[in-house]
Amino acid sequence: MxxxxxxxxxxxxxxSLDLEDYYHPGERVIYxxxxxxxxxxxLKEKDFRDFLKTNDxxxxxxxxxxxxxxxxxxxxxxAYMLLALQLESFANCVVFGNLKDxxxxxxxxxxxxxxxxQFRDARVVIKGCSKVEVPTEIYVEISRKLKPIVKSxxxxxxxxxxxxxxxxx
Length: 169
What we know:
By secondary structure, this protein is an alpha/beta fold. It has 4 helices and 7 strands. The chain has 2 domains: about 15-25 and about 105-165, no CATH class; about 30-90, no CATH class.
């Protein structure tokens, strides 16, 4: 008689949370303010404001934009603010910083949309391997958010986990 194969992982009651599911697929682009500087040194306010009014911002529709200035120049804070306000009407997400900062913001936005109640009193495994790079900060943030809600929290794969937290009874 053949012995029945039992999937112990499936019957364990573990809930797997894959942060890759929260990856925003939109295009990521950098807007380098250097291109708006006179001789890559100074920002002329009048010229910059004219540019902001006349530029076709629709090319950023749905994109995720990281604003930087790669030139070694002193750029007033208001210039980044004005630029962000122009981009915000078209882009999905706008941040001041590099592409890594943008990625963190996109994941943070996604985490803020998760209904954490679905994990109440559950045994949760935060999946560790993914096809897209999930910033470490996001793993830290989701573990911090889940701790007060879950019964236990683990990291890895359901068949091989690292325990992170277990509620005291």
